[in-house]
Task: inverse folding
């Protein structure tokens, strides 16, 4: 096994290899642009050893923010013209809110940004620079979170709705199967697109063509409605209150409140948002029978009973009570996920005992470092230290033995998807450098 110092250097090399000069792409070939929550995770690593680059990472991302506060999931790199689907696919020019001079997508990703920005400022050895960075980013974060509550809180109960599987970050998760199955594809429904992912990565490790057709159809709904949220939600068959997205928003609101306090700004609104979202998650998304939080399908009016690792993520934002946290730990410590007395690398993205589980197909089973990083911090916050340590060691061991891959086989530890993946390197660095 590589020494800890050697592993740290290898991880830094991955980020350096993927540096674009103004931001960090997720991987050398498959993802040549800047992705939203990727950058938030990546900046957390830079914060430990290169504060100016961490600041630049987030500054670059927010240059693509829309006038209504929407923070797009991709900021396109003009030099990577062969990527598909590219900026022309999104047609964001149809929205009056889209930025001028910056090419972006028209959807969002989980709001990890306030958490990342607070972390960057706290780690900065130059206190004045860190404070100036918070002052610069605070209005942008306010606008981002206000957009979510103004445009995406459809029931006015604090739960934010997503309108595309990609907005959750868990693209082909079994969570979306039922909602996507409602979309009956007919001739002329799907806008033209070209996939490049299956030219770079094994097709068995990626979403299917049937799933991609539905992803593209949803985007068509967005631009045909000029990216006006009220019109989109009236037209779309995909309207989901997602556990992971809302969990990260609860934590993000708390961190935004801290930023406000540091700057001497009013902070109560962000605390209220955090409390409202947390309370409604407990009222609506918690399932006591299964000891997990389930997504909710607003279109069908039903909970989505998909046993995914993200269903345990509310631990990260201290959403569950202590009693509920015990049930979550019991559920995690089963054969379907990752019992400590079995050979198990880390928590798979989907319960191994569920139909459709695959150890290699993207979000239908493989281990993802970012989800395990979230679970690690959540378990620590509830004092479940043995399980937390198991996850931490897996996060260290997987890239050490298999390389810095996008995701990993939960049974063998084999690296899958794109290699030299930035957030795998970044979140490993965050744990190792925080420990140091």
Result:
């Amino acid at each position: 096994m590589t020494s800890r110092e050697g592993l740290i250097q290898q991880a830094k090399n991955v980020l350096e290899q993927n540096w674009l000069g103004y931001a960090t792409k997720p991987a050398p070939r498959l993802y040549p642009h800047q992705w939203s929550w990727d950058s938030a995770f990546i900046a957390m690593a830079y914060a430990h050893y290169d504060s100016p680059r961490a600041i630049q990472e987030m500054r670059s991302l927010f240059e693509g923010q829309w006038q209504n506060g929407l923070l797009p999931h991709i900021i396109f790199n003009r030099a990577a013209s062969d990527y598909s689907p590219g900026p022309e696919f999104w047609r964001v020019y149809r929205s009056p809110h889209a930025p001028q001079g910056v090419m972006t997508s028209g959807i969002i990703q989980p709001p990890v940004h306030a958490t990342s920005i607070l972390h960057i400022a706290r780690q900065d050895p130059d206190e004045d620079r860190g404070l100036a960075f918070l002052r610069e980013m605070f209005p942008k974060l306010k606008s981002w979170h206000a957009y979510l509550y103004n445009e995406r809180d459809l029931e006015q109960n604090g739960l934010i709705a997503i309108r595309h599987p990609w907005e959750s970050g868990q693209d082909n998760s079994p969570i979306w199967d039922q909602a996507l199955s409602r979309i009956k594809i007919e001739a002329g429904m799907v806008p033209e697109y070209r996939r490049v992912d299956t030219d770079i990565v094994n097709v068995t490790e990626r979403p299917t063509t049937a799933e991609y057709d539905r992803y593209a159809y949803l985007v068509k709904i967005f631009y045909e409605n000029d990216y006006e949220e009220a019109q989109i939600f009236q037209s779309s068959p995909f309207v989901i209150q997602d556990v992971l997205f809302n969990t990260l928003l609860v934590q993000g609101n708390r961190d935004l409140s801290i930023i406000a306090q540091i700057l001497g700004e009013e902070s109560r609104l962000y605390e209220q948002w955090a409390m409202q979202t947390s309370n409604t998650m407990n009222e609506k998304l918690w399932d006591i029978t299964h000891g997990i939080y389930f997504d909710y399908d607003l279109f069908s009016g039903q909970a989505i009973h998909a046993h995914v690792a993200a269903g345990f993520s509310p631990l990260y934002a201290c959403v569950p009570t202590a009693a509920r946290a015990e049930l979550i730990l019991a559920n995690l410590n089963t054969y379907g996920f990752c019992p400590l007395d079995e050979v198990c690398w880390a928590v798979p993205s989907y319960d191994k005992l569920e139909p459709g589980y695959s150890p290699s197909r993207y979000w239908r089973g493989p281990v993802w470092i970012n989800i395990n990083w979230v679970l690690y911090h959540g378990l620590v916050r509830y004092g479940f230290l043995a399980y937390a340590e198991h996850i931490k060691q897996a996060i260290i061991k997987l890239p050490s033995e298999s390389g810095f891959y996008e995701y990993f086989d939960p049974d063998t530890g084999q690296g899958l998807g794109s290699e030299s993946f930035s957030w795998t390197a970044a979140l490993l660095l965050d744990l190792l450098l925080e420990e140091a």
In short: The beta strands are 34-35, 74-75, 161-162, 240-241, 286-287, 292-293, 295-297, 302-304, 407-408, 415-416. The CA atoms of residues 25 and 34 lie 5 Å apart.
